[in-house]
């Protein structure tokens, strides 16, 4: 990676390309929606964005990563929030706090998330990839709980519950219009989890 | 599929091969353990079992299916048990009942399950496949709950919790020696889930 990459600029063939990453994401989403994910090539994405393939590969390792590049950052943020939750909190409350801490960051990504989810829902391989990423997320949260002194199986169960709640809340958030509030939906979903587990 | 396949016999090249499937599974597990899953070919599995590749492909579509062929049957049994659970049961109790109903069938497969899990744990691709299969299982359980009149997100949450409990119980069962009782471990794990969710 060159110095220019680190500070977020591109200098393909000597020219500065403003917001290359955003243009590539937009071009990819359009093409995945219009003609299908499997039928889209990196060359076509780059062309529609008015950029070169070389520029594409500076930002993403392949066309799938356009849809999943946020997973690593989300995991880091969640683990960081969990590591910093008050020691006194029961594990399920610490997980809930961590999820709410990252929820705010999604508010400006509602449109992207909605379009992304439609593409993923229509492709079995992408849906599997999403499932695997959420599994990794649950694994990382369980690890963070163990660092807090929570033993297994409680750590694994609390982490899996958290991801299950996140999934249903996220889906509801995506399907709502009119500035939905992911934090609020998460709280409601945690209450639903508690009701279901209590046999209500 | 020929008639002879349906009733469980093989007639490769005119000879009757007793328990070909069991021999193929045993040969595959040995090879996956000894030299690694990626390094093992179908030809080698068939050779070690004293059978032909043609016989292998009568039983399994590929070498991965040796480890995952039980997933479809497990799903059928779970959904069947859930469809037949008393209507009055809350969803989490119905899920618990269904899991216990299939638990007995595992008692004779402890050794196979233990060896299989070791192989899967050592291979990222297989671990992802396992996760995907469990995701499909959760999806099928949620579907069955919706048929019982449970609405979402309760159906999805109850199904995901059931699979999370099944996973942790199954892992504990695998690691125990001395005739462990999966039904009992499942009941204990459900109690742990309830405690975790209640913030204990």
CATH class of the largest domain in chain A, named: Mainly Alpha
Characterize the biggest β-sheet of chain A. Answer: none
Report the count of strand segments of chain A.
0
Largest interface: A-B, 31 and 31 residues
* Helix percent band of chain A: 55-70%
Radius of gyration of chain A: 19 Å
Do you know the CATH topology of the largest domain in chain A?
Tetracycline Repressor, domain 2
Supply the CATH superfamily name of the largest domain in chain A.
Tetracycline Repressor, domain 2
Order of helices and strands of chain A: HHHHHHHHHHH
Structure explained in plain terms:
The structure is a homodimer. With about 200 residues, chain A is mainly α. Chain A folds into two domains: about 60 residues, Homeodomain-like (Arc Repressor Mutant, subunit A), CATH 1.10.10; about 130 residues, Tetracycline Repressor, domain 2 (Orthogonal Bundle). Chain A is about 70% helix and about 0% strand. Chain A starts with a helix and ends with a helix. Chains A and B meet through helix 7, helix 9, helix 10 and helix 11 of A and helix 7, helix 9, helix 10 and helix 11 of B.
């Amino acid at each position: 990676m060159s110095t220019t990459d680190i500070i977020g600029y591109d200098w393909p063939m000597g020219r500065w390309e403003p917001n290359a990453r955003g243009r590539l994401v937009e071009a990819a989403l359009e093409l995945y929606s219009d003609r299908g994910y499997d039928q889209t090539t990196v060359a076509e994405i780059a062309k529609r964005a008015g950029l070169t393939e070389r520029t594409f590969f500076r930002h993403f390792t392949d066309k799938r990563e356009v849809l999943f590049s946020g997973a690593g950052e989300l995991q880091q943020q969640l683990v960081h929030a969990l590591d910093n939750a008050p020691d006194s909190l029961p594990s399920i409350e610490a997980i809930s706090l961590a999820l709410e801490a990252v929820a705010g960051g999604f508010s400006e990504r509602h449109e992207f998330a909605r379009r992304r989810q439609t593409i993923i829902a229509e492709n079995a391989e992408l849906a599997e990839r999403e499932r695997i990423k959420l599994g990794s997320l649950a694994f990382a949260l369980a690890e963070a709980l163990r660092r807090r002194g929570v033993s297994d199986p409680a750590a694994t169960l609390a982490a899996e519950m958290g991801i299950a709640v996140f999934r249903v809340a996220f889906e509801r958030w995506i399907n709502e219009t009119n500035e939905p509030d992911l934090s609020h939906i998460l709280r409601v979903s945690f209450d639903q989890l508690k009701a279901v587990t209590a046999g209500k």
